[in-house]
Amino acid sequence: MVIKIDAMKTTNKSTKKTNSYNGLVLDRLQEKHGYSKVYIRQCLDGTRKPGIADTLIKEYKQMEKAVKAALK
Fold first, then answer.
1. List of residues 6+ apart from 21 with CB closer than 8 A
2. Contact call for residues 44 and 57 (beta carbons, < 8 A)
3. Whole-angstrom Cα distance, residue 53 to residue 43?
4. What is the largest CA-CA distance in the chain?
5. How far apart are CA 67 and CA 72, in angstroms?
6. Residue 19 in contact with residue 60, Cβ under 8 Å?
7. CA 56 – CA 71 distance, rounded (Å)
8. CA distances from 6 to 1, 3, 10, 16, 62 (A)
9. Tens digit of pLDDT for each residue in 13-70?
10. Which of 19, 46, 55, 71 has a Cα-to-Cα distance from 13 of 20 to 30 A?
11. The whole model's pTM is what?
């Protein structure tokens, strides 16, 4: 008896790129809007698409830019 194993089915490597977000900015957005960090991350990476997601993305980019400028 010969068992064929497909090489593609045996690998368990994830192909999705994981994003890393600035924790300080996430904390600030959580304080400001009252949403959980998980929900904010989902809005930022596009998993969730509510109306507030556009606002969160815009504010995250502004805050992250300000943090990077302050660290220079």
1. 41, 44, 60
2. yes
3. 5
4. 67
5. 9
6. no
7. 22
8. 16, 10, 7, 21, 47
9. 667 677 889 999 999 999 999 999 999 999 999 888 888 999 999 999 999 999 999 9
10. 46
11. 0.72
